């Protein structure tokens, strides 16, 4: 289970160049970064709506959708789940306020 997200990302990467008429993953990749980002925005909105409901099953479903689309973004950017885990570990033990204040302004 601890490697499942990395395994799923690897599967997404293998589908990246498949036929976009038969693969949703390939379709999103073929449409490019802006379409992937649009889907992440849509899923984020759906999470907000689901979180306001008493139905946690819907919330879990929407978070799974968001995570999936974030994995597609990682694939598009040639990143790995390990990059995210490494960053989360780096932040461990640091106040969220302190961590945010330490970020460089870009």
Give the SSE order as H and E letters.
HHHHHH
Low-confidence stretches: none
* Secondary structure tally: strands: 0
Number of domains: 1
Ends: how far apart?
Answer: 36 Å
Q: How would you sum up the major sheet?
A: none
Mean pLDDT: 92
Q: Which homologous superfamily in CATH is the superfamily?
A: MazG-like
Cα shape: globular
Structural class: mainly alpha
CATH third-tier fold name? Helix Hairpins
CATH architecture: Orthogonal Bundle
Q: Please, how many helices?
A: 6
What portion of the residues fall into strands of 2 or more residues? under 5%
CATH class: Mainly Alpha
Furnish the topology, listing elements before pairings.
Layout lengths: L3 H12 L8 H8 L1 H19 L4 H21 L4 H11 L4 H7 L4
Describe this structure in words.
With 106 residues, the protein is an all-alpha fold. It has a single domain (4-94), classed as MazG-like (Helix Hairpins, Orthogonal Bundle), CATH 1.10.287.1080. Helix content is 74%, strand content 0%.
Describe what is shown at a glance.
The chain has 106 residues and is mainly alpha-helical. It has a single domain, classed as Helix Hairpins. It is built from six helices and no strands.
Q: What attributes does this structure have?
A:
mainly alpha, 0% strand
């Amino acid at each position: 289970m601890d490697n499942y997200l990395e395994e799923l990302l690897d599967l997404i990467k293998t589908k990246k160049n498949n036929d976009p008429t038969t693969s949703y993953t390939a379709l999103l990749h073929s449409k490019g970064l802006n379409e992937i980002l649009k889907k992440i925005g849509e899923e984020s909105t759906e999470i907000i709506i689901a979180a306001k409901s008493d139905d946690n099953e819907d919330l879990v479903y929407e978070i799974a959708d968001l995570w999936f689309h974030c994995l597609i973004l990682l694939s598009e950017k040639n990143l790995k789940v390990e990059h995210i885990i490494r960053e989360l570990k780096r932040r461990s033990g640091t106040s969220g306020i302190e961590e945010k204040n330490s970020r460089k302004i870009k």
